[in-house]
Amino acid sequence: MHILISAQTYPSPKNQLSAFVAVLAEEMVRQGEDVTVLAPQSLTTCWRHKIPLCPQKYKVKMETPEGIREMTILRPLCITLGQGRFNKLSIRIDRFIVNRTAKRLKTRPDIIYSHFWKAANNIIDFAVENGIPSFVATGEDEITIDQFLSPQRISLLKDNMKGVICVSTKNQTESIAHHLTELPKTIVLPNAVNPKEFYHIGQKAAREQLGYSQDDFIVAYCGRFNTRKGCRRVSDAITLLNDPQIKSIFIGIASGGIHEEPACEGILFKGSLNHHEIVTYLNAADVFVLPTQAEGCSNAIIEAMACGLPIVSSDLPFNYDILNDSNAILVDPMNVRQIADAISEIKRNSELRQSKSTGSLEAAQKLSIENRVSRILEFIKKQIQTNL
């Protein structure tokens, strides 16, 4: 199949946000599909955050069981006007740019796979006009696209979407509640990890590589430095514990929402990393902490699980498909005292720490990107056959 992936963003060497879109696209290629990615790049966002522009069209080569294959990446330029009163105009601009680019494709796609509902809205006109089966993966922390669309536009998406891949039961429930789909068209498949990129190295080896002490207790955080993700709440919890043995790693950038910076003592690393570098830093840690307020299904948590880390995260529905007592301590994400107590319990109780580490590794084995993409492709073929 020739699959056209419509995405809101796509990672570049200077901007690793949305790396999971590339992971999924590349795995589709490895499983024998022809893939083209269409993801606009915002001139205003690149200018504001000093991110270099990508070429508007380029190829990515990768090794597959059949040899070297290529994937085409299309990055047309657009202008975004923020999330305020001009958001509706931004949506219309995106839609125009995406449809114009899609119409210039030399070969007609067999399938359109949209990453999130906004990307589905961008491409649905092209899909309907050309009779191309359309699917969407919904993994938004909060589904808001219906707030900016007319009832007719919502009906267009609902009536023409052959299937909806939901990263969590929470996203499935939201998509149905917002009248974007119906239960028979959906499947719940949590996000996944590439085991060749995120795996258990062993703490001792990772710390030797990074030059960290073997005696410290290290807390790892990976996510944007903002209020929603809880960067400062992790920092405040560490400060509250006032334990000089506790050190920390904060992987991320200031992007989206209210900016925050960690301010606790003992920070070993703070800043962004290339996606392939993160595995060493996670393996050097004792616990992964992400008290996020809203998610679809956190890729960062799954990557930490694949590295064998016990998890401290939010006692909220978006986590319930991947976290439980075997691998995590779930807390109120806004309660710094609870976050601190969970960190302290993992530090104090070595048996609990080892047990939850084992639980994370076992859970992560079931969340491989190979298995997820295989199930997505099976679902797509089944839905197409059902609708013939």
Helix-strand topology string? EHEEHEEEHEHEHEHEHEHEEHEHEEHHH
Portion in strands: 15-25%
Fraction of residues in helix: 25-40%
Major sheet attributes: 8 strands, mixed
Q: What is the alpha-carbon Rg in Å?
A: 21 Å
Instruction: Order the strands across the largest sheet as they lie in space.
Output: 4-5-2-1-7-8-9-10
Secondary structure tally, helices: 13
Give the CA-based shape: globular
Total number of beta strands: 16
Give the distance, in angstroms, between the N- and C-terminal Cα atoms. 17 Å
Mean pLDDT comes to 93
Structural class, from helix and strand content? alpha/beta
Q: Which spans of ≥5 residues are poorly predicted at pLDDT below 50?
A: none
Oligomeric state:
single chain
In short:
This protein is an alpha/beta fold. 38% of the residues lie in helices and 20% in strands.
